[in-house]
Specification:
180 residues; 27% helix
């Protein structure tokens, strides 16, 4: 058991290069952040996993709004530490049709991205999983936006995120939160 008082946390700064990220996807590919070339952003939605009903709601909504993101030049992926079987079950049970799903995110990658980690507290939860987070990565690889949660609730409404992104893209709004 890790002594929390001895744990070091990684806080990723906006405006700097995003950490390496590669995951297997349900469509049989290896997805690599470094290879993504969206017009404006790559949106990464880290989700807790199959056990999370709030993840189900968020990803089902995201699946329905992918065209709105695409119209803004944003490509999205949802990633968890779930196994292939659990990720496939999420896609099927949650009715996800278009959303790219990455799975088997390692603990090392979760920590590299500064995600909050939790131990499963209930029978249906994995031993270890990440809490939700959203990152927007510019085509040059820099982190433009990060929202890292330590609980399953208090996620932004996707309509609010889309409205903000419309403004940011239209006004060429600068990256915020990068003063150290």
């Amino acid at each position: 058991m890790v002594n929390i008082s001895e744990t070091v946390s990684t806080k990723l700064l906006t405006g700097v290069a995003a950490p390496e990220l590669e995951v297997k996807t349900l469509d049989g590919e290896m997805w690599r952040l470094a290879e993504q070339k969206p017009q404006n952003y790559t949106a990464i939605f880290f989700y807790r996993g199959l056990h999370c009903p709030l993840c189900e709601s968020q990803l089902a909504e995201l699946d329905q709004k992918l065209e709105q993101f695409a119209n803004l030049g944003i490509e999205a992926i949802a990633i968890s530490g779930d196994s292939l079987d659990r990720a496939q079950q999420s896609k099927n049970t949650w009715g996800l049709k278009k959303l790219k799903i990455g799975y088997d995110l390692s603990e090392e990658a979760m920590r590299r991205w500064g995600l909050y980690l939790s131990h499963g507290a209930f029978e249906n939860e994995p031993q270890l999983f990440s809490e939700p987070a959203i990152f927007l990565i510019k085509p040059c690889g820099k982190i433009a936006f990060s929202l890292i949660g330590n609980t399953p609730f208090a996620r932004p409404r996707l309509d609010d995120l889309i409205a903000g992104l419309e403004y940011v893209i239209e006004k060429n709004y600068p990256i915020r939160g990068n003063v150290v």
